[in-house]
Amino acid sequence: MSFFHNHGLSHRESKDASFSREDFEGYSAAQAEAKLPQARSEAEISRAIALGLEAAQSIEDRTISCFSRGELPHWAGINTFLKMPFLENVHEVDQYDIAILGVPFDIGTTYRPGTRFGPQAIRRISALYTTYNYELGVDLREQVKICDLGDVFTVANIEKSFDQISKAVSFVLSKGTMPIILGGDHAIGYPCLRGIAENIEGNVGIIHLDRHVDTQEKDMDERMHTTPWFHATNIPNAPPSNLVQIGIGGWQVPRAGVAVARERGTTILTITDVERLGIEKVAEIALEVAWKGAKAVYLSFDIDSLDAGFVPGTGWPEPGGFLPREALKLLQLVAREGVCGMEVVEVSPPYDISDTTALMAVRAIVDVIATMVLHGKIGGR
Q1: Collapsed DSSP state (helix, strand, coil) of residue 113
Q2: Rounded CA gap, 179 and 188, in Å?
Q3: Is residue 162 within 8 Å of 224, Cβ to Cβ?
């Protein structure tokens, strides 16, 4: 008996198999990396040394500073998103293509709280990443200007917090900068969209990945995280005909929200629809619905749209959702046409395991940004 199998081919025959490494994405991706600039990376190293002192004389690598500044080492320093610059003066946001803003808000939660700590967790684990993606051939540090504005000051009142959130999002977009919002529970979808819509001369479409419709008018007599798209689609230039919701299903879809979706004629695709149609076709449908007669599209990514086994750190986990690769592929496909803003919501660190849920949130954001850069929808400032 032999433990070595060659499936009927001799060693020499196996070596003669017809393939070329030039046919692999891995080859073309490696070639593309050589074309990427490094100027901003080099500037960051120089800045780190200037502000953080030169390293001790025993350190041979003279790109290392004495105090940690910039990306390295990944476990040290003060975490902003991807360790991008913290912009204390928000009036200077117009100097950037993208602004990250946290919304530590969870008083719209109807079961498990903790999403107020979502922005911290997302920023913390984002330090694990570099700014370069191998397959896409994009380096965010070199190709797009990103800053972190810190967090919106939310208070212990839902409606007052909504006003704060809308003002923050509106201010960023009014300066020509794309806001990316780290939630926070999904109640923030409404004030975020309100801040977006008042800066768009025309209709705004909404692409919403979730397991829940979130279209009921009130929950426990308040505008909670089950209600954002009822109120968002009451905004005159955010009509329900431009709302497409993907991944809906399971045992946590309130009938009150279903009735509203039916009455308003929104477009809902379940996970079964996704399996039957395929990711590419679903993306095509989503873009057609959201962009029909619209001037811009807003992207809402609820982390619980993924199967609960992959994202335990969320308030309403539901089995049977997207696999991570499916969700990321869908996000990339819709981002090719560009989005005017993006929110990632319902990351609840108290229930997370090894930061896996927060890490998925980071991955969703950087994939969307990189796809927009790759297709010329952002960057170049």
Answers
A1: coil
A2: 14
A3: no
Maximum separation of any 2 CA atoms in the chain, in Å: 75
Residues 6+ apart with CB under 8 A from 310: 323, 324, 356, 360
pTM over 0.90: yes
Q: How confident is the model at residue 8 (pLDDT cuts 50, 70, 90)?
A: low
Q: Which residue has the tokens 């993606």?
A: 133
Structure-token pair, residue 229: 């798209």
Residues 6+ apart with CB under 8 A from 88: 150
Which amino acid, residue 226?
T
Rg (CA), the chain: 22
How would residue 224 be classed by pLDDT, with cut points 50, 70 and 90? confident
DSSP tag of 327: H
The residues pairing with 306 across neighbouring beta strands, listed in sequence order, are 322
Burial of 31: CB neighbours in 10 Å, binned 0-12, 13-18, 19+ = exposed
**Cα 116 to Cα 124, 141, 350, distances in angstroms:** 14, 28, 10
Cα 153 from Cα 312, distance rounded (Å): 27
Q: How far is CA 280 from CA 93, 126, 276, 334, in A?
A: 35, 28, 11, 10
Residue 37, token pair as written in the block: 């600039």
* Strands 203-209 vs 267-270: parallel, antiparallel or unpaired: unpaired
Residue with tokens 């999403």: 115
Name the token pair of 305.
């749209």
pLDDT at residue 222 in the model = 86
Backbone angles phi, psi at 22, to 5 degrees: -65, -15
CA-based nearest residue to 55, from 68, 42, 65, 69: 65
Element housing 290 (H / E): helix 279-291
Residue 292 Cα distances to 5, 190, 202, 246, angstroms: 56, 21, 11, 17
Place of tokens 């199967």: 307
> Is pLDDT of 122 > 50?
yes
